[in-house]
Amino acid sequence: MTLASPVPAPLPSRSGYAELAAEIRRLGLMRRRPDFYLPLIGANLCALGVVVAAMVLARGSWWLMLLAAAFAVVSAQIAFVGHDSGHRQVTRRSGPSRLLGLLHANLLNGLSYGWWVDKHNAHHAHPNDLDADPDVRAGALVFDSHQTASRRGLRRWTTRHQAWLFFPMLLLEAVSLHISSVQALLRPGVRHRWVEAVLLAVHFAAYATLLVTTMTWLQAVVFVAVHQSVLGLYLGCSFAPNHKGMPSLDEAQAADPFLRQVLTSRNIRGGLLVDAALGGLNYQIEHHLFPSMPRPNLRKARPVVRRFCERNGVPYVELSPLASYREVLRHLHEVGAELRQGSHA
Q1: In 10 A of CB 55, how many CB atoms?
Q2: How far apart are CA 95 and CA 101, in angstroms?
Q3: What's the CA gap between 20 and 308, in Å, rounded?
Q4: Which of 52, 100, 98, 44 is nearest to 75 (CA)?
Q5: Cα 20 to chain center, whole Å?
Q6: Above 80 in pLDDT, residue 15?
């Protein structure tokens, strides 16, 4: 079962994905890019060091609250590198990729790398499939009208108004990720679970130490609220426009690896600033077709993929940031429409 309305026919019965992949490889777009990632990782670590040093120097000042937002931006940029490591975009080797992921996710962000990779791989395998994609399962938000019938009480009210509540709820996304990470490590299943648990404990201990040694308890509470809220909003706004509200697929389309990824994904238009702000996730179509493609090569792959889609009659959806968020909100509003009608009956 998948989301939204069906894709308009006709579409090619076979996409020729192998032909596109061969062209991408011929252009060298799958080659690793240490020239991009080494400076990026260094810049992120320097930015983190600057924020921490500023907190120490401004100890006890309410001006520290402004640093909380800057801390959130740095945390998100570090998370983007963790994402790329999970896809082996930084290095092909599993050991170094896992090490980078553990450092960027567990140690620096307090998130379980193993839990997230398993969840994210399931999403990439079956994007927008209600039965297989964990990112569209009914939770605080509902992404398909078939999920609304069982909603009761507060959840039912939330679904009715979820379009209005979407951005406010994203403020809790980072906290939700922290909680889910801890829960995942409390039960068997995550590879190297104890290593991840130790790194997570070190992160939270270091975070708490930084707070209690640089500010009062009241300041610490406000700082955490700002840091985690802005981080959650930033991450949510980076991931949400990519698939929400995209059309459903029939059985044949879902079986084709090219159509399955392109028809359920949406690109976000913009220049280098958007690329940096969204960690390359604005090239969602190219990223889903070639998950291990290094981030800086996605921009180069875009015209190749777009021309291929045009030749084969496959819709290639690309919107501005504002238009993409408008589509997400429209879709959430439509999903809750039946419950709103029922409330007035």
Answers
A1: 20
A2: 10
A3: 7
A4: 44
A5: 25
A6: no
Mean per-residue pLDDT over the chain, rounded: 92
pLDDT value at position 4?
Answer: 58
Spatial CA neighbour of 295 closest among 76, 112, 40, 64: 40
Query: CA 235, CA 73: separation in Å to the nearest integer?
Result: 9
The pLDDT value recorded for residue 345 is 46
Mean pLDDT comparison of 5-9, 117-121, 144-148, highest-scoring range:
117-121
Cα torsion angle, 227, 233, 238, 244, sign: positive
Amino acid at 205: A
Cβ neighbours around 198 below 10 Å, total: 14
Q: Which of 185, 180, 174, 319 is nearest to 241 (CA)?
A: 319
Contacts (Cβ under 8 Å, ≥6 apart) of 7: 247, 248, 249, 250, 253, 263, 315
N-to-C CA span, the chain: 29
Structure tokens that stand for 249 in this block? 């697929």
Per-residue pLDDT at 320 exceeds 70: yes
CA angle 288, 34, 126 (to 5 degrees): 15
pTM for the full model? 0.92
pLDDT digits (tens, 9 = 90+) for 1-11: 446 555 654 55
Dump the DSSP string for 278-331.
TTTTT-HHHHHHSTTS-HHHHHHHHHHHHHHHHHHT----EE-HHHHHHHHHHH
% pLDDT > 90, the chain: 77
Overall residue count recorded for the chain in this entry: 345
Return the pLDDT at 8.
Answer: 54
Q: β-pairing, 318-319 with 267-268?
A: parallel
- Using left for φ > 0, alpha for ψ between -120 and 50, and beta otherwise, residue 16 falls in left
Q: Exposed, middle or buried, 296 (CB in 10 Å: 0-12/13-18/19+)? A: middle
